[in-house]
Amino acid sequence: MTTNKIIAFCYSFILGTALAIIFFSSFDVFVTPFAFSELLLIHWIFIGVGALSLIWIIFGKYRLLSAVMLVLIPMLLGAANYWRFFNTKFPDHISNQLDKQFWDKTGIRGTVIREPDERADKTNLFVRPFEIRKKDGQWRKLKGRTGNILVQVKPVVGDYYEECEYGDVIEVESALMVPMEKKNPGSFDYKDYLRSMFGAYGCMYPRTPEQVKKIGESRGWLLRFALDLKKKMIVITKETMPYPQSAFLGGVTLGTRGGVPPQMKFEFQATGVAHVLSVSGLHAGFIALLFFTICSILRIPPKPRWFL
């Protein structure tokens, strides 16, 4: 019975998200007075779990009411989560700070929130800003939900850019432009792709090393440990295996795609298995297998093992 309730909770959450996608503008008008976006999703999860527990305790004998609330509360949570993520009503949201001309200058200080996407001719950095500088020349802290920014670096011969990593705090000065929208019906919408996949509402295209500066780090001990461990594993792989086999192994086990040859990428895309070269459920399965192996060695009982 508990399993059925969990399944119903998950499906109701998904249904609420789907309804928010369909009726986004109407939902935005309905939910704005309650300031849902001021709370983190984890708060709403605790509120939902607490409300469900209270309902089951008080109305346990009223099965119909309990069933209705079991469906309704997760739906509201799913809709609120979607609205919180895509809400752009804040004055400091990046979509409200965009420049009109490509030669305008905007300063951004923010944290790199993903591993750099290194390509043959460019590197994409996804940055979550916390300070901005416009034409007045004064740095100002951003409040509320800001959205993310794509910083696309295209070095030329002779340029040297500081190496940026996940968790670094950087300062970028360039025009803050709206992402390219689709030109024809049915064509690829790059703006919608950045918004839905990375929460990015603006793009910056620095062209000189002076426009991108690393000014600090924002990594906890756990993230530092994970990144250092990943680097050591990549180094060991490169030292013990020839290229391009080492690049393939790094992509399958660690999700690194920067060193994979273009021909190998094309072959994986042509056969429909390019997803194995990016972080996916396969890598989550590797981590789960590692934890299960450690738990087996330590002789941890099955129930605590599943919990871990």
Give an overview in words.
- With 308 residues, the chain is of the alpha+beta class.
- The protein has 3 domains: 2-86, no CATH class; 94-217, OB fold (Dihydrolipoamide Acetyltransferase, E2P) (Beta Barrel), CATH 2.40.50; 221-307, no CATH class.
- The protein is built from 10 helices and 9 strands.
- Strands 1, 2, 3, 4, 5, 6, 7, 8 and 9 form a 9-stranded mixed beta sheet that branches.
- Helix 1 (2-22) packs across helix 4.
- The longest helix is centred in the first third of the chain and has 24 residues, at 63-86.
SSE arrangement:
Elements: H1 2-22, H2 24-31, H3 41-58, H4 63-86, E1 106-112, E2 117-118, E3 123-133, E4 139-141, E5 148-153, E6 168-174, E7 176-177, H5 190-198, E8 200-204, E9 212-217, H6 221-240, H7 245-254, H8 262-270, H9 281-297, H10 302-307
Parallel strand pairs: 5-8
Antiparallel strand pairs: 1-3, 1-6, 2-3, 3-4, 3-5, 6-9, 7-8
What are the salient characteristics of this protein?
alpha+beta, globular, 10 helices, 308 residues, 3 domains, nine-stranded mixed beta sheet, single chain, OB fold (Dihydrolipoamide Acetyltransferase, E2P)
Quick summary:
The chain has helices at 2-22, 24-31, 41-58, 63-86, 190-198, 221-240, 245-254, 262-270, 281-297, 302-307; strands at 106-112, 117-118, 123-133, 139-141, 148-153, 168-174, 176-177, 200-204, 212-217. It has 308 residues and is α+β, with helices and mostly antiparallel strands.
